[in-house]
Specification:
It contains 13 helices and 13 strands. It has helices at residues 3-14, 44-60, 75-87, 100-111, 129-141, 146-149, 163-168, 192-201, 221-224, 294-310, 312-330, 362-371, 395-411, and strands at residues 32-33, 94-96, 120-124, 150-153, 174-180, 205-209, 228-231, 246-249, 341-342, 355-358, 374-375, 377-379, 383-386. The chain is α/β, with parallel strands linked by helices. Helix 9 (221-224) links the parallel strand 6 (205-209) and strand 7. The chain is globular. Homodimer. It comes from Salipaludibacillus keqinensis.
């Protein structure tokens, strides 16, 4: 047994979160699951909370909206309360609804108010595509040409962003800023406090896409003072494929009329008056639109209860230790293939929840890993992402992944696969 293998075993013995591993279902023939930053695993508690909602439907029918342990009419508010500690916000600053895309449309339509020469939106050239699509769409709807007004901070290395460079681009004509908290390819964690402070000093509204940080990186959004944020829940929060999304709107913006209105954003005491005059809720729940998909929301409850027990600080501590351990192991692989490059920052304060490697044969290496029971994630054009989710990944999993990857590189067995992504990567 090598020293590093022994270290993995020792770290597992010390792991406070190891008790949660047995709560999850692992894919058949794939005991090492490192794709939790794309889709988290199903847990027994998420399964139970979904079945409980089905039982309420069976037992109460229409009265499930107000009866049962979790009345559907108030379900979004309950889930928002469970999420609040993860992002450092009041439950009233959170709405559990929609998806990242629909919630971005909602918030940008509300907060993007071009006027005079202040018409531009600032984002980055590494942003996830849906963020760009939304920004361009909303600009067109407001009669603003994206070609001239959507500004993108350009990464100097094609992988990471420099906060000082972003701040340099916060010019007088910028109206709104949208950035990722963690870059989806490289796993770089941005300094939200620094960026928010700089934006507000320049009278610019700023918000963040938390898709790759919520559930693995603690945030203090209220204290940070950022104006808005959006996220999905099917990654680290394990709510299931297409699980319900969420949004944050700082309390200083409460009372602002939503750019898009729907009846579930109503003051609940007036919602069933059926008036054609919209009376919005007095908090972030005003930004809900249609009737929530209860069976889509239900698994999130069971999952969030585990996060409540584990604590986001403990989750972050383990996440950092696992990705650091993974980097230490994988650094030895460069002796086998010097084309391997780490693109995730090494420093703890700049690293999110996953480790990303660059390799010209990344697609075929990912395919080979899957045949050997390790599920990673490929991102075009040539990146491999490994996301050791703290609630169900062990340090031994990380060690075994290293052994499998070492074998693949030594034998070059990946050459039997095409170096092209599958339809879904």
């Amino acid at each position: 047994m090598t020293l590093l293998h022994k270290l993995a075993l020792d770290l597992d013995k010390q792991d406070k979160l190891s008790i949660f591993r047995d709560e999850f279902y692992f894919p058949e023939d794939s005991p090492i699951y490192l794709d939790g930053n794309s889709l988290g695993l199903l847990s027994k508690r998420a399964e139970a909370s979904l079945l409980a909602s089905l039982e309420d439907w069976k037992r109460y029918a229409i009265d499930g909206w107000t009866n049962g342990e979790n009345p559907w009419f108030y379900y979004g508010e309950k889930l928002s309360g469970l999420k609040a500690p993860l992002i450092g916000a009041s439950p009233k600053e959170i709405a559990t609804a929609g998806s990242i895309t629909s919630n971005l449309h909602q918030l940008i339509s509300t907060l993007y108010q071009p006027e005079g020469t202040k018409t531009k939106i600032l984002t980055d050239n590494l942003a996830f595509p849906t963020d760009i699509y939304v920004l361009e769409s909303q600009m067109k709807l407001k009669g603003v040409n994206p070609a001239d007004n959507l500004m993108k901070v350009v990464s100097s290395d094609g992988q990471t962003l420099n906060e000082d460079r972003i701040i340099e681009k916060m010019t007088e004509d910028i109206c709104l800023i949208l950035l990722p908290s963690v870059l989806y390819r490289s796993g770089q964690l941005l300094d939200l406090n620094k960026l928010t402070k700089a934006a507000h000093e320049r009278n610019i509204i700023i918000g963040f896409d938390l898709a790759h940080s919520i559930g693995v990186v603690p945030h203090q959004l209220h204290e940070t003072g950022c104006d808005f944020a959006v996220w999905c829940t099917y990654k680290y929060l394990n709510s299931g494929p297409g699980g319900v999304g969420g949004l944050f709107l700082h309390e200083k913006h409460h009372g602002t009329e939503p750019g898009l209105t729907g009846w579930f954003g109503s003051d609940k005491s007036k919602q069933f008056d059926m008036s054609h005059t919209f009376t919005p809720a007095d908090d972030a729940s005003a930004f809900q639109l249609g009737t929530p998909h209860i069976l889509n929301c239900a698994p999130l409850q069971g999952s969030l209860e585990m996060f409540q027990e584990a604590g986001i600080a403990t989750i972050r501590e383990k996440s950092l230790r696992m990705t650091a351990f993974m980097r230490k192991l994988f650094s030895e692989l460069k002796l086998l293939d010097d084309r391997i490059e780490f693109i995730t920052p090494e420093e703890d304060h700049r690293r999110g929840g996953h480790l990303a490697l660059s390799h010209p044969d990344a697609a075929r290496i990912c395919k080979d890993l899957k045949t050997r029971g390790v599920i990673p994630d490929f991102r075009a054009p040539h990146f491999i992402r490994f996301a050791p989710a703290p609630l169900y990944t062990s340090f031994t999993d990380v060690w075994e992944t290293y052994q499998v990857l070492k074998s693949i590189l030594e034998s070059k067995s990946y050459e039997r696969f095409s170096n092209e992504r599958n339809v879904i990567a």
